Amino acid sequence: MNPSRSKPRFVAIDILNEILGNKKSFHELRSLGVLKNLKPNEKAFVQRLVMDTLRNLDRYDKLLKKYLKKEPKLRVKNILRLGLTELVTGGASHAIVNEAVNYAASNKTTRPMKGLVNAILRKFSSYEIDELNKDESISRLPVWLRDPLVNAYGKSTVIEIEKIQSITPPIDITLKDPSKIHDWAKELDGRIVFNESIRLESGKQISALPGFKEGDWWVQDIAASIPIRLLGNLSGKKVLDLCAAPGAKTLQLASLGANVTSVDISSSRLELLRENLERCGLHADIIESDAFDIFDKFDIVLLDAPCSATGTIRRHPDLVYCKDGSDFSELFEIQAKLLDHAASIVKDDGLIIYVTCSLLPDEGECQIEEFLERNDKFEIKKSNEISRNIPDTWVLNSGDIRITPASSDEKGGLDGFYICYLQKNQIKPKES
Questions:
Q1: CATH homologous superfamily of domain 3-134?
Q2: DSSP state of 139
Q3: Cα angle vertex 96, ends 94, 97, to 5°?
Q4: Residue ranges covered by each domain of the chain
Q5: What dotted CATH number matches 220-424?
Q6: Which residues, in sequence order, are bridge partners of residue 193?
Q7: pTM given for the model
Q8: Rounded Cα gap, residues 31 and 28, in angstroms
């Protein structure tokens, strides 16, 4: 066994076991250090293996069912699932089977099943793998999420969302200097999308690409870049990024000339923000604090609120396996409190930008409707009055923005986002 090749696969299977067996998210596992002993290219390899396996779980299980007389233990099934992922993506079948058998042999729980692993994976002919690649069936969202989305958007839209989520998403990047977009699109072999983002094919090692170490760009889904991109030049503006880490929007704000204060309660996530600021040669004042302990006044308050993250499942398919919707009511309550706090620290004539990477109206449209009932000093500033550089279909009648993964014809889709600009109106003193 070649340890340099086998170790990442061992880690990938262990991660699958934790996600599917213990409902832990990939982000949580990464923060616990599951990838710490891997090289950057190995980390990228492991993440790709895990996410591609989760995106195709239903398809793979349907094929495996033909060869399994009874349901094996989760760890054994994950060895088979991971092996299928590699076979489907064109890996060398002999090496893949050997690695899977080696993993099974390395664990006393799975050791008696190494013969089964060997026998099943060797049965998959090139014809069968080709047929699996042609299978257009998609993984359905779990009922706890699918039902409210069907109620909100209709069944046909949800099916389109599911189709997008079954595809490995591309890599989107935001430039520090957008005027150089044509040069960078050529340099990175990418294509320009929505005028200011560059989209690359998936599977690239980010840290090895030109311009990354130099800080010329950062990874950011196109939809996530829109709330700040629409604002234009922010020179001289005092801006608060209230829940900032890991910081892509802070980078945007700083690159547009804002005097940025970035707040987050997580020291580890703020460290990542510091690294990104240093890499990109940008500055922000960083405060490790509870958001509710900030009392200064700001021209603009960006509230990218903690949320269900249901709009990011195309990039994070693990979320459907480690969530069940039971904690959503707590999130809704936190979002409302954060909105009210933002209202208290934004200056008169200032702006709150409320953002969630959620598909649930309860975390977007409904939150804003209830906020406006509580805060009569605010009104929605229509996004198409800020910038017309967005499709009309994204703009709701009230002027806020709703994006779903199926909102664009762009290959690979977008993350789901809700965006609302809230203008605080100055209350004129009464005439005596």
A1: NusB-like (1.10.940.10)
A2: P
A3: 70
A4: 3-134, 220-424
A5: 3.40.50.150
A6: 197
A7: 0.91
A8: 5
